[in-house]
From TrEMBL:
First and last residue of the signal peptide: 1-36
Source superkingdom: Bacteria
Record's keyword terms, sorted: Signal
Gene3D superfamilies: ABC-type transport auxiliary lipoprotein component (3.40.50.10610)
Lineage of source species: Bacteria, Pseudomonadati, Bacteroidota, Cytophagia, Cytophagales
Keyword Signal in record: yes
Record-given protein name: DUF4136 domain-containing protein
Amino acid sequence: MNHSRTPRNYAQGTTNLLKRLAFVLVLLLGSNLAFAQGFESAKQIFESPKLKTAITGHRTVAILPFDAKITYRKQPKGFNAEANRDQEETMSKSIQASLYTFLLRKADNYSVSFQDVDKTNILLKKAGLYGKLDQATRDEVAKALGVDAVLGGRFETEQTKTEGAAIASAVLFGGLGGKTGTGSLFLTLNDGNDGELLWRFFKTMDDGITSSTDDLVERMMRKVSRNFPYAKN
């Protein structure tokens, strides 16, 4: 008996293999999306009882440099603490700038104006507060900036994969598996008169190789837009 495979047999085998691969990819994609949605759903919002009354007197709000923290589940080879601090400072400025750009782009949706972040940072440096925001109260910061309220926050990310490994897995799975870490983002609003916390937003999110600070802010603000204190009704 001739056991050699005909072209038709090969074609049928190839078709079945492709179907099985497609099925596996669909399962992987579904699992990835389900996990992402579950992870991204973790959020908390706090509103002070004084919020609505306080913001009626606000005209100008400053966006402060974010407190950024980058850690690693497994510290990479050749880790350089100074370089890591430089990266954190870059991320701090980038998130601040991205948030300002987002709010400026949708300025008509808000009841206040936002101070230019370059001006904010210059005034902070003149007041000796740049990089030392944890050494001053929020009302002291607002006074130095000449604003009615300050919007600040913190972004913490734990890297679970090297960028190279993430890119390799993304290529292997056609865009799947590119997640490089997880993060948590806090956004806070403090009154300029007494420094009291008026509003806080907390969000957990994943961080992929294609994620920029613009992407992070866009995702965050999509979640917070309905609850943002200055959003016009």
